[in-house]
Amino acid sequence: MAKSILVVEDDPDIAAYLVSLFRTNGYRADAATEGPDAVEMARARRPDLVTLDLEMPRQWGPRVYRELMDLPGGAHIPVVLVTGLGGLHLMVPNAVGTVDKPFDPDLMLGIVRRALGE
Question: Which residues are modified to 4-aspartylphosphate (predicted)?
């Protein structure tokens, strides 16, 4: 069965691009454009990996991260940070990787594959 990725990204174009990138490469992928929706989606169907935008309007990425980690089994979900602002990745020290916007799709896929043990 394909591994699932939850894309948490407030920019709908970037979210759609990431979902397409992951699906094209054999993953199940869904997107949430707001933090509260992401937490509910993760609660309903625990993803194998999360990509998390750190700067979102309704809820900062680090807070979403903490809420994801508080879910049952959430502490074992690898998180890849996606950010357009340098230094923000330091707010989530346990992330398995950080990708700066604009990002190279091969770099993103490499981080995802390593995090999923592929």
Answer: 53
CB contact at 8 A, 94 and 73: no
pTM, 2 dp: 0.92
User: What would the pLDDT profile of 88-114 be if each residue is shown by its tens digit?
Assistant: 556 677 889 988 888 899 999 999 999
Q: Are the CB atoms for 54 and 98 separated by under 8 Å? A: no
Instruction: Provide the residue type at 17 as one letter.
Output: Y
CA 54, 17, 8 angle in degrees (round to 5)? 30
Give burial (CB, 10 Å; 0-12/13-18/19+) of 105: middle
Residue 18 CA neighbour count, 13 Å, CB half? 32
Average confidence score pLDDT of the chain? 90
Domain boundaries, the chain: 4-115
- Give 81-87's long-range contacts (Cβ < 8 A, gap of 24+): 81/51, 81/52, 81/54, 82/9, 82/14, 82/18, 82/51, 82/52, 82/53, 82/54, 83/53, 83/54, 83/55, 84/55, 85/54, 85/55
